[in-house]
UniProtKB/TrEMBL annotation:
Gene3D superfamilies: Rhodopsin 7-helix transmembrane proteins (1.20.1070.10). It comes from the Eukaryota. This is Olfactory receptor. The keyword Nucleotidyltransferase does not apply. Belongs to the G-protein coupled receptor 1 family. The gene is LOC114426847. The keyword rRNA-binding does not apply. Keywords: Cell membrane, Disulfide bond, G-protein coupled receptor, Glycoprotein, Membrane, Olfaction, Receptor, Sensory transduction, Transducer, Transmembrane, Transmembrane helix. It is found in: Cell membrane. InterPro entries: GPCR1_Superfamily_Member, GPCR_Rhodpsn, GPCR_Rhodpsn_7TM, Olfact_rcpt. GO terms for molecular function: G protein-coupled receptor activity; odorant binding; olfactory receptor activity. The chain crosses the membrane at residues 16-37, 49-74, 81-102, 114-143, 164-184, 216-240, 261-282, 294-314.
């Protein structure tokens, strides 16, 4: 009898514990703040068309970038600093696309396009830290080209494996540390609007807060200079020096400068234009037509990750050779 009573009490305690857990879970679900992504246009009518187009783009991004990364990893003659930085840049493009595309594809098939506030903050953090890493990786590539062309005798000493590893770590770590400060600071901020004028979380989320924070605005400008403006100025300075030295040198140096520097400059110009648009669209806010904003946002997340492998695949001589061999072998296998 006592044993039965004891078992009954244990069962009651266990039942109460599960009820307590269920209540806690329900409260957690109730307390989650959801933000509506209001930048979608006619998603109910064209959801499958949007999904097919963007899913195809995402697959192309992964395949094209992964192909060149694999070529760089497999072939030993591509194990040079310049190609390692290219592989890092392409990896960064894939990571950045993965931050946006899976959620975007889910939203196209969903009845409601919503995201939790914590997930939105996390997406903002990843989006801008990886965006900023792109500029720092391009800066590292510019430095590598500067040493290679302007100081060729010192190149093996300066661009050692340790130097490359440090530059890669800093390119990803510095932006992450700087971008995390305002994101963490906004975690408990009061929201007065729950509709974001965009299809993913970006700078527009600053318009959701009840009070604009001056310290965070000032800090944001400092971060912008650190991870975008200064790297771009450094890149322009190094390539100007390279062009001056190449102009004074023989034809071989000029051709080397043109072959290796032109792709980097094309990527920089392309990326800077897209990044400037992302910043400008937030300032314009509601003045910009919703359809135009939607189309241009899709372009900003598609163009750069697709253009990078095309530019490096066509313009970089050694990568282009390996690509031709790869596709040449594929054609021969298909014929057999």
């Amino acid at each position: 009898m006592v044993d039965t009573l004891h078992r009954g009490v244990n069962e009651i305690h266990r039942g109460l514990f599960y009820v307590f857990l269920l209540i806690m879970f329900i409260n957690a679900e109730i307390n989650v703040t959801y933000i509506t992504l209001g930048g979608h246009v006619e998603v109910n009518n064209y959801r499958y068309l949007y999904f097919i187009i963007m899913f195809t783009v995402y697959i192309l991004i992964i395949c094209s970038n992964a192909t060149i990364m694999c070529l760089i990893i497999i072939h030993k003659n591509l194990h040079e600093p310049m190609y390692i930085f290219i592989a890092a840049l392409l990896l960064n493009s894939v990571l950045l696309s993965t931050v946006i595309y899976p959620k975007l594809l889910i939203d196209f098939l969903s009845e409601k396009q919503i995201i939790s506030y914590s997930a939105c903050l996390f997406q903002v953090f990843l989006f801008y830290s990886l965006n900023s890493s792109e500029f720092l990786l391009l800066s590292a590539m510019a430095y590598d080209r500067y040493v290679s062309i302007c100081k060729p005798l010192q190149y093996p000493t300066i661009m050692r494996k340790t130097t490359i590893n440090i530059l890669l770590v800093l390119a990803w770590l510095l932006p992450a540390c700087q971008v995390s400060v305002p994101v963490i600071g906004r975690a408990n901020a009061e929201l007065c609007d729950l509709t974001l004028e965009g299809i993913f979380c970006n700078n527009s989320f600053n318009h959701l807060f009840c009070v604009s924070s001056t310290p965070f605005s000032v800090y944001g400008v400092i971060v912008l200079f650190n991870v975008v403006v200064f790297p771009v100025l450094f890149i322009l300075f190094t390539y100007t020096k390279i062009l001056i030295i190449a102009h004074r040198s023989c034809g071989d140096v000029r051709s080397k400068a043109a072959q290796t520097c032109l792709p980097h400059l094309l990527v920089l110009v392309n990326y800077f234009c897209l990044f400037s648009y992302d910043m400008a669209i937030v300032r314009l806010d509601t003045k910009f037509p919703k359809t135009a904003r939607f189309v241009m946002t899709l372009q900003i997340i598609a163009y750069n990750p697709l253009c990078n492998p095309i530019i490096y695949g066509l313009k970089m001589k050694e990568i282009s050779k390996h690509l031709k061999r790869l596709f040449g072998q594929s054609k021969q296998k298909c014929r057999h």
